[in-house]
Amino acid sequence: ANEMRGRLQNSGFEILGSRLPFIGTFHSLGARILRKEAHRLGRRPNFVIFDDRDSFALIKKVAKKISPTDKKKEISRQARDKEGPTIFAKKVSEIKSTNKIEPSHTKSCNDKTLKVLQEYERALKENNAFDFDDLIEKVVWLLKTKPALLEKYQKKFGAVLVDEYQDLNPMQYELIRLISGKHKNLSVVGDDEQLIYGWRYANLQIFLGFERDWPGARIVLLEENYRSTANIIRAASAVAKNNKYRR
pTM score, two decimals? Predict the structure, then answer.
């Protein structure tokens, strides 16, 4: 993002009479919006952003409060794996990234996960903090529930360009859908054979369903490779042709 911003500045873009557009990651965009709208979520504009380590420490504290360890009982490794802070942290992130309220676990674990999530959210608010996933999830919630706010940001971002579109997770897609839904002035760049953020809940079906979700879209194929040698291209193609889902 910094590279793109620097290139535009060096090109004399602002000299032409246009303001430099916002260029950044999804999370930096979300943070910028939340700094202005934090009061709607019970935070002050100087809120703290918890990184993964901060979030895990807080979830660990919350989980211990909800499920205090009984030292008289011997807890099996299987039980720890199902109800330990690591699995709770993963499930909380999954819920915030995919909007799935029902994680794929037993009902009892679901109930406990939701209890941890609720207590964790309360603790974040008390600390005037958002976690990394909140930077998108909370913005999506605001835009969905505040029509005037949605209209404001649709006008502010009258044209949207998304790079590495194949790596979007469902919540990032929802943010794009909300902001671009009215003017539909959306351009995306991506490659279904380069998805690398599955561990952050990237969903390839978002990329493959682009024409369905945005009827009338014009598709431009970029089929010339200027970066790799022929051997690398042949090897990569031999691997990619086995992909189950691809254009």
Answer: 0.85
